[in-house]
Amino acid sequence: MRVSTRVARILGATAVFALACAAPTPVGALDASQERLASILERYNAAIDLATQSVDSLRVVQHMVEPQPDGGERSARAVLVYERSRGMTRRVITSNLSYPAGDYTLASLVGPGLDPSEYRIVLEAEEDVEGVPCYRLGVTALSRDVSHIDGTVWVSRESPGPVRVVGLVADPPFPLAEIRLDKRFGPGPLGFAVLRCHAGEVRAGIVLGRKKGARTITYAGYVVNGVAEE
What's the pTM? Predict the structure, then answer.
């Protein structure tokens, strides 16, 4: 694995960050709170950087279930591959899905970076999510585009990667009026967090008659750098 000295040093730290979160604390409100949040973000972003740098190849099976108006379900399956030699952009090997346009870089599977220059970030609380002790961060996108969200990110206090991301896409592409997402992460073959389930709902604008659509996509059978999950 190619890991920068800075990333390795950050992830090697064993300090425990004690938080007092009786109320949400905006970045910059208090020096102590600012330092706590800065430490959390540094460790989190380092984990995302490490995951991104560590992957030379990734293969995963995607399974989608989409409820239908008649009460039934539409189900589909695809095999996706990411390769550094191809720029780490998703390549569909087999599929019976109809994919929307988009780059779908590796960030869609390892979690979003949280750059304070791109988000207003608030440390809201400590709580367990999916049985994992987490920091709950409220995020509001300063960069208003399809790659950023307004919502909540739960960061593991132990890993320290993402556990769950819930929110709205900051600026959905036309003709969509709203894209809701709920992503859940779990450990992958090399130890860093990978996407396990993505539940989403889209609402089209008046151009498409204000239609709604929902789908749930699960990811399994990860193989990273030739290492398969057990």
Answer: 0.80
Domain boundaries, the chain: 21-228
Instruction: Give, in order, the Cα–Cα distances in Å from 222 to each of 13, 119, 227.
Output: 28, 30, 8
Contact partners, residue 222, CB within 8 Å, separation at least 6: 58, 59, 60, 188, 189, 194, 228, 229
With contact defined as beta carbons under 8 Å apart, do 49 and 106 qualify?
Answer: no
* pLDDT tens string 136-152: 999 999 989 988 999 99
* Strand (E) or helix (H) holding 66: strand 57-67
List, in sequence order, every residue forming a beta bridge with 194; answer none if it has no partner. 186
Residue 16 banded pLDDT, cuts 50, 70, 90: very low
- Per residue, the 3-state secondary structure of 15-37, as one string, reads CCCCCCCCCCEECCCCHHHHHHH
What is the DSSP track for 202-228? EEE-GGGTS-EEEEEEEEEEEEETTEE
Q: What is the CATH code of the structural domain delimited by 21-228? A: 2.50.20
Residue 77 makes CB contacts below 8 A (sequence gap 6+) with 61, 62, 63, 64, 94, 95, 96, 97
Instruction: List the one residue out of 113, 62, 107, 61 whose CA is nearest residue 88.
Output: 107
* pLDDT for 120: 97
Burial 30-61 (b: 16+ CB within 10 A, else e): eeebeebbebbbebbbbbbbbbbebbeebbbb
